[in-house]
Write a structure and sequence with these properties.
Blueprint lengths: L4 E4 L5 H18 L8 H9 L6 E8 L5 E9 L7 E8 L8 H15 L4 E7 L3 H8 L3 E12 L7 H12 L3 E7 L7 H8 L16 H14 L3 E9 L5 E9 L6 E9 L8 H16 L5 E7 L3 H10 L2 E2 L4 E7 H5 L1
Parallel strand pairs: 4-5, 10-11
Antiparallel strand pairs: 1-2, 2-3, 3-4, 5-13, 6-11, 6-12, 6-13, 7-8, 8-9, 9-10
Helix pairs in contact: 5-8, 6-7, 8-9
């Protein structure tokens, strides 16, 4: 392996952040060439963290000239899953197969062990170099995330309106509310309640427990720090006033033409009323006026999440590769 130093990124070093993005963009050009373009602002938001979020560290591999060869981001949950360090590792394609990824992995394992973590968890594009690396080191595969993409411009005329009429009929007794940006204070209790519905989605890890304070500490500050626009729609049960379902979309100003589907969930007592379809159709209608430049939406679900996949396919989402494979490996195995 070439002479490489590994140092922690100082968030005030914006020149270094630019180099991290170059590595990220170079990796994506090889591993996910047809996906949404990488977003500098999204990368900065992800790496920086902030109040109320899990602790996170960024470590950078450089050569003698100071050029960035690769880096990793380690997230250390402080509530659920405290045995895991969640790792995202990237090496520029020009510097792969020189032991840099292995050096970064071992360094991350040392950091995780120092914090009392017994496992490293991460994800990589299926079939790519990261996938081969994970298999080579003996990481155990977990949930496979299937990606789908909707080309809004290719939707047949009248399809969205017809689906809205169908969903409105099935969801009689429910009303919709929407907002942009952080969760309004009057909506925080209902949002916290319905966010729990995400725990029913397939996962390899412990459920996240949601209450009003967690929404105020984690969700809203992240939205406030981001330059992205967050669109949220919720379904309200008319008879009880209970928040029954929600869906969220992010639009990044530095990724023109694309929108990112975030969470969609329906609380258990309110399932069977086509609320998931209703919310997603309503979101498409909203974006048509609020974000007319958006032509594509990308979404991902566990490949075994048949219910949500069926809704997406009804809307016109099509399978989009590469998919994303979750992996986990014991820290002790890396250090050996």
């Amino acid at each position: 392996m070439r002479d490489v130093g590994i140092t922690q990124w100082d968030q005030s070093n914006l020149d270094m952040l630019d180099q991290l993005f170059v590595v990220d963009a170079g990796s994506q050009a090889v591993d996910d060439p047809f996906g949404p373009p990488p977003s500098p602002s999204w990368l900065q938001l992800t790496l920086a963290g902030g109040k109320g979020t899990d602790r996170r560290e960024v470590w950078v591999a450089t050569d003698n000239s100071g050029s960035v060869l690769g880096w990793y981001w380690l997230r250390l949950p402080d509530r659920e899953n405290r045995h895991v360090g969640f790792l995202s590792l990237s090496v520029h394609p020009e510097h792969r197969r020189h032991g840099i990824g292995t050096a970064l992995l071992r360094h991350a394992a040392q950091r995780a062990a120092a914090d009392g973590r017994t496992a490293l968890g991460g994800e990589t594009f299926e079939g790519g170099s990261g996938d081969a690396f994970a298999k080579r080191i003996g990481a155990k595969p977990g949930v496979l995330e299937a990606r789908r993409r909707l080309d809004i411009t290719a939707l047949p005329p009248g399809k969205v309106a017809a689906l809205r009429a169908e969903a409105d009929t099935a969801a009689s007794g429910y009303s919709l509310a929407s907002w942009t940006g952080p969760v309004p204070e009057e909506r925080v209790p209902g949002y916290a309640y319905v966010r729990e519905a995400m725990n029913d989605a397939p996962s390899d890890y412990e459920d996240q427990r949601w209450d009003t304070q967690r929404v105020r500490d984690v969700v809203n500050p992240r939205i406030e720090r981001s330059v992205n626009q967050r669109y949220t729609i919720v379904a309200i049960h008319d008879a009880t006033g209970q928040t029954a379902a929600f869906t969220e979309i992010d639009v990044a100003p530095d990724v023109p033409g694309w929108a990112y589907q975030d969470n969609t969930g329906v609380a258990r007592p309110h399932r069977g009323h086509r609320l998931g379809l209703l919310l997603k159709v309503a979101m498409l209608q909203w974006l048509a006026t609020a974000e007319p430049g958006v032509g594509k939406i990308i979404t991902w679900n566990a490949a075994i999440n048949d219910h949500m996949i069926a809704i997406n396919e009804q809307l016109g989402f099509e399978v989009f590769h590469p998919w994303v494979q979750d992996y986990e490996i014991p820290v002790a195995a890396v250090l050996r």
